[in-house]
Description:
By secondary structure, the protein is α+β, with helices and mostly antiparallel strands.
Amino acid sequence: MITEGDINIRTIEERDLKVIYKFNSQKTRGNYQEFQFESFRKLQLEYEKDGFCSSEFQILNVEKEEQTIGLLYLSFYRQGIVRIGLVLSSDNCNKGNGTVILNLIVKYIFENYPIVRIEADTDVENIIAQKVSQKAGFLREGILRKYRYHHGTYHDSYIYSIIK
């Protein structure tokens, strides 16, 4: 578990599946996120494979005062590089939580994995996520054109990174 103040980041447990499923709704994820799981059963089957904790992909639960406020996604897709994604519930955005969470996970990754580069991306219209990324030390590198599909259309994203 990764902890700072009242924020905890931990691996997913079976009891978290209902929360994850709730986070995979457009209402919870907000205006800029796509979502993956079509059914609760599919989510369960995916969890049963490896508990969302493999050497290639991880989902981590983010809690504040023992309540889930978000999910962290880690994709170890190339040697030395991890791509992260953070989804906070809409009522936990714009309260400073995102910056604390990103700082925690960046420090943890660099200290515990042979990673030299952490990447993140965000919709070009998601100003809050852009500010959080920059406050956590990520630099904007460019635009990924037509990179995200949500609300029925493709959207451009900014790509950010932080180097060890």
